Amino acid sequence: MLALIVFLPLAAFLAILLGAPARLTAVGAAALNLALALYAAATWHCPCWIFSEPVLAKPAIHLAFGFPDGMSVVMVLLTAIVTLAAVLSGKAPEGRETLYYGSSLLLSGGALGAFAATDLFFFYAFHELALIPTFLMIGILGRGERRAAAWKITIYLGLGSIVLLAGLVWLANLTGTFDMGKMADAGRIDPVAQKGIAGLLIVGFGTLVSLFPFHSWAAPAYASAPAPIAMLHAGVLKKFGLYGLLRLAIPLVPDGLQAWLNPLLLLLLGNILWVGYVTVSQKRLDLMLGNSSVMHMGYIFLAVAALIAFPENPLARSAAIVLMFAHGISIALLFGLADRIERCTGSIDLADLGGLGKSAPALAFMFGIAAMASIGLPGLANFAGEVLVFLAAFKSYDGTSGLGPVQVTCILAIWGVVISAVYMLRAYRNIFQGPAGTLTSSAPDISLTDRIPALLLIIVLLAVGLYPNILLNLLK
Amino acid sequence: MPAYYLEALTVTLGIALLMAEAFVPSKAKGWVGIAGAIGLAGILGLTCLAIGPDAKPDAAWAKWPLWNFYTFDGLARFYKIFALLCTLLVLLMGVDYRKVLVQFTDHPGSEAGTGEYHVLPVFACAGMMWLASARDLAGAFVALELVTITFYILVSYMRRNIGSLEAGVKYLILGALSTGFLVYGIAWIYGSTGTMNLLEIGNRLRESVMFSSVPIISGLFTIHQVPLLFGVALVMVGLGFKVGAVPMQIWIPDVYQGAPTPTTAFLSVGSKAAGFILMIRFLEPFLAGPVTRGPVLGLLGVLACATLLFGNLAAIAQTNFKRLLAYSSIAHAGFLLLALAAWQPSDSELTSTMVVSFYLATYLLMTLGVFFVLAQVRIQRDGENITDFNGLGTTNPRLALALTVLLAALAGVPLTAGFIGKFFVFFLAVDSHLWWAVGIATIAATAGFYYYFKVIRAMWWMPPADATPINLPPISAVCIAVLTVAVLLFGIWPQPIWALLH
What we know:
The complex is a heterodimer of chains A (about 475) and B (about 500). With about 475 residues, chain A is mostly helical. Chain A has 20 helices and two strands. Chain A is globular and about 65 Å long. Chain B has about 500 residues and is an all-alpha fold. Chain B has a domain at about 300-500. Helix content of chain B is about 75%, strand content about 0%. Chain B has 21 helices and no strands. Chain B has helices at about 5-20, 30-50, 60, 75-105, 120-135, 135-155, 160-195, 200-210, 220, 225-245, 250-260, 260-290, 290-315, 320-340, 350-380, 390-395, 395-410, 415-430, 435-460, 475-490, 495-500. The two termini of chain B are about 20 Å apart.
């Protein structure tokens, strides 16, 4: 039955390709999929969701989907929510509707397949499927330096995927199976091999999640991408790398990861502090958001690092997943609203904007909430995630043995919250406050239809922020 | 029906077409190609239906004087189907390519001189089919020459085109050289083992090991390693030419670029597959023999790494699409050689032979699909550069989508058939602990990603230079659609090809 959720967007993509009305089909499929995903979240323990169809007898490969634990449920839910918001808030250029909505659905289907797959082969394959429309759409319908940005993301993610593939093949070879559920049964993997696999997985998955220093594809790509693609990639698809680390690397190569812990801590500080510093100096809203999304990956990596350092730490795992979810929703909201600002005023340059709050109060209000969420204000989902991360990092701290590397990193990382506040609030002031310029004084406010996707995301942010148990119960 | 009827039927079809061609009016030479394709489709049907996969030599075969030159097994059947399918598609491609051929044959503007172009591939096909069944080096050599000599003509068929002529001369000279190596190597092997039959060679190698410790008779069975391995190396040079292994690849870019596009497609798919089936048949006894196994595997490993690196890295700089495909064909030969270098014998779960065959099957679908598109671009845009594909996404979105799928498959993007082939190769290499080769293959695959996406980028991201859309003639349109769908289908559900290999 889970196959239905995965193949619905792909079927809708085919329908659009064959001439179905693009926007209507895309919105219908996304809404239906969200309903199915919600139903799945309520009943995910039921074995009826498991789907398995043999594809190849030897070596045994199955087209298999299932919910091995709550993490997959959360990710599927995230994908379904962001997909609906993305297709609702997108506005296709004249005559390119097929391409615009079709590729959004293709991306969504690929992401769903990757999060729901329980076979290593399709786990990898569906993610790649989702990358292709990302590359093409940035190149075809992007803005600004779109060709350079698209080429850069193609090369970076292509290279990352192949490094990842080498690690995954090695893993499958040692465990002798492609079934991700059965891999742990093969016994403990030899420590030397563990170290090699862990290194390949950190670099491979890390490139996909824009881990410092493999991150420089992200900001230009998101800045150039059409809004739904930026929302879906930054919000959903990028989380695939973290999902993969949690799903495969942590349970299967724990000792190998241990060896890479200190380098990983340094790299994630690079994400939070270095990229945070870069973000502060951005002059354009889209580049700033792209960089901020790279920066926030550092916190999720911190949760992963805490899990590596203290494997018996259930909090760290939940923290990573909640923050993945929260960041996915908030960054999608921000990219959606940034697109709206550009459509209202014709510019995305912070210097050109100002005083938009007077002419577009609803837009200002929504952007304010999104910015607060991104900073990590209590009451919004990101706060729940970030607090959990910081708690997880100190979980096994007993005060007698002094601070370990994870705790030191955590203390430094908390400064990132200040950096976030600096750039987000400054951007808000530059766009919405101050004297109105020529572009902003007569700009229209966000239209009623455009408010629906933004409200959807805001409601989710508030719900998880006020009552994080919605997610935490799924993760028990 | 005995299996060798298939080759007989194919040759008969070729001769019949050649004679009929003389009476076909010069305006309708395309029908010769269509008739050939229909004939081949019939033989293909016979191969699939009339002969079981386990048609083994029986009493009736024993009376046949050539029986120990010929074998029939699942692998032979697979490669016969491969050769027939490939030739069929090449003939169909040739039918649409007449428009270019007529410009460069004897009577410009008339199809009078193009008839043989549609017939010759059938003879090459017969040679390839025989190669799939060869089990004697002498027989294999004759079949290989049938293929090669046909290609000499096909490559230089556009005799008023300087590029085609140059390609023909280069192919002739280097092909003859490689033939020399091949025959010389066969002679050395015959000299050291006393037989040219591959089955016998295997037996002799086993006996020489088995009796090496028995004092008196050991001398009777001794095979001297150095001359034998020298012979194997020489044969590998000869076969390396056919499959395009570095350093025997120098002819490929120029010949591929100069030859008529259907011939290039045929060279790149049919001729390469023929080289690989012969290589598998030839190497099997040597890889089973404990003494020869090590050096042969070492040779294959070096060839594979060199081919992977050269093919992929040299492809990056190409601006001519046909030349790019030439380097890509070298690159794929590298992956195929890597599968052989990671040799898994026939009793393992995933054998090298199966992986090579599977890879070639997917390679056929992807490469021929791309060549169909290239042929149409050549006909209608009069160019073969990557820039001639600029803006294809705007003028012909569906064609561009198909080409995107095919190129992504060649690059090895998941959920296409090309990925599964590469995936198996990686899997085998990891299984055999060829870590260096895995590293090089990773670099190679990344480079492949880059140069295939260069074409995709041109199609979708660049503004069109020529706003008139490309009109696909019905034959090409159907072939491209079928091949694209097959590439996607086998990417998700490879079992049919896999079942054919068992």
